[in-house]
Design goal:
Order of helices and strands of chain B: HHHHHEEEEEEEEEEEH
Largest interface: A-B, 86 and 63 residues
Order of helices and strands of chain A: HHHHHHHHHHHH
Structural class of chain A: mainly alpha
Largest sheet of chain B: 6 strands, antiparallel
CATH topology of chain B: Jelly Rolls
Helix content of chain A: over 70%
Shape of chain A: globular
Number of helices of chain A: 12
Distance between the termini of chain A: 14 Å
Helix content of chain B: 25-40%
Largest sheet of chain A: none
Number of domains of chain B: 1
Oligomer: heterodimer
Structural class of chain B: alpha+beta
């Protein structure tokens, strides 16, 4: 819990060194006081990135622009649901973008993901989850990913950014499906270790 | 309940990246509400998406993008008073049916419309919203009953909601999920004390090994 407290009141140094903390502060302003300028800063940073992943997932410019608007409107409307202790703002925005991508690009239902969010809101282990995730900072996640072997990084990007199904990744890389799965497990195992008690 | 059998790490990653179709998303989400360890596992995996989102090459937005959204949020405040939530089926947190499954079968295991497909085996097919290669169904298998040995053309997941069964991987009780890929064959046998009710997602029709079992397949479809 000490960690969570420290994240809420970062020193000047931490803010300067760590854009992730800066994003948390901006999200807090949006959520506490509907701060339009703070939201604008988040939009400027995340909008072009969300657009990038939508285009890599197969959307054309117009659809991707539309999806950026949807995603950022959800960030605004659901800002109260973002808990700094849950992790980086970028992770939260990624999940909103992923859900929009499932609904719009895959024409499937993202409701199971919403059910998990709803469940966490009412579950009594929220504190434990907060403690666990409190220390996960965006910059360290990026570092941990770039420390992965290229072959694992490539699969992570194809899965999370380009939205390719596992079977399609195997086909594109001419690898057996089992190899793709074991590389995913390896990458996950390493990140799990590196992100522990950050 | 203490969950003993968890999701494969590769499945946590697929759920986090959004790669599972509706049948598998529903069964994974149903396990997640019952299993704190896997819930944490998914949250960790989602960090990868966040980290990659930070480092992706940006694509410029159209010039008016930001003003459009700011105009929308300004209107939003004005509209905030009006009710906007569509009426949903009420979800209860005090139920033997995990929340993500309640949308499909309601809040009670006692009110499922079972259809007997073989002696001691009843099935309830779940209608999904989006058409997919995978199917999702409930099975109720009588106490002590064995299901014919079967391999799978694709992934198969089984989430136990009530009762328990045993196979080569161990004993599976309420909350446990058996996350099998296409190479594994198993022959579940329900423990003698009570019927076992599970949720099952399969990627492709399962192939039974024996001749008589193959004859059973159109009936059971598992």
């Amino acid at each position: 819990m000490q960690v969570a407290h420290r994240m809420k009141q970062p020193s000047e140094d931490q803010v300067l060194q760590n854009p992730g903390d800066d994003h948390k502060r901006l999200m807090e302003s949006v959520s506490v006081s509907q701060d339009r300028e703070a939201f604008k800063s988040l939009f400027v940073y995340f909008g072009p990135r969300v657009k990038a992943i939508m285009m890599k997932s197969g959307a054309d410019h117009a659809t991707a622009d539309d999806l950026v608007q949807d995603v950022m409107m959800t960030v605004w409307r659901k800002c109260a649901l973002y808990k700094p202790a849950r992790g980086a703002v970028s992770t939260w925005i990624f999940t909103i973008a992923r859900n929009a991508r499932i609904d719009r690009l895959r024409r499937a239902s993202s409701r199971p993901y919403d059910d998990i969010d709803d469940f966490e809101l009412v579950s009594d282990d929220a504190d434990a989850e907060q403690e666990m995730l409190a220390g996960q900072r965006a910059s360290l996640v990026s570092q941990a990913i770039s420390a992965l072997p290229d072959e694992q990084q490539q699969i992570m990007e194809m899965a999370f950014i380009s939205d390719l199904p596992q079977s399609e990744i195997a086909r594109k890389l001419s690898l057996p499906l089992g190899t793709v799965k074991s590389r995913m497990r390896l990458a996950y195992g390493k990140l799990r270790i590196n992100l522990k008690d950050v | 309940m203490t969950v003993q059998h968890h999701l494969d790490d590769a499945t946590l990653m697929r759920f986090a990246s959004g790669d599972l179709d509706e049948a598998f998303s529903v069964i994974v989400a149903s396990h997640l509400v019952l299993c704190k360890a896997c819930r944490h596992g998914v949250r960790k995996a989602e960090n990868i998406g966040g980290g990659l989102l930070e480092s992706v090459d940006q694509v410029p937005l159209r010039a008016e993008a930001i003003d459009d959204v700011l105009a929308l949020i300004d209107n939003d405040k004005v509209c905030d008073q009006t009710p906007q939530q569509p009426v949903k089926m009420p979800i209860t947190h005090e139920s033997d049916v995990p929340e993500p499954l309640q949308h499909f079968i309601g809040p009670s295991l006692d009110q499922i419309a079972w259809k007997t497909v073989a002696p001691g085996i009843a099935k309830h097919m779940i209608n999904l919203q989006s058409p997919a290669r995978s199917s999702l169904y409930m099975l109720r298998i009588a106490a002590g009953k064995a299901v014919p040995e079967h391999g799978h053309g694709g992934n198969e997941m089984t989430l136990v909601l009530s009762g328990a069964y045993r196979d080569d991987m161990g004993i599976f009780g309420p909350g446990d999920i058996e996350d099998l890929d296409e190479h594994i064959e198993h022959q579940p046998k329900v423990l003698p004390d009570a019927a076992c009710i599970c949720l099952v997602a399969t990627e492709a029709p399962t192939r039974f090994k024996g001749f008589f079992s193959r004859m059973l397949q159109p009936l059971v479809g598992i």
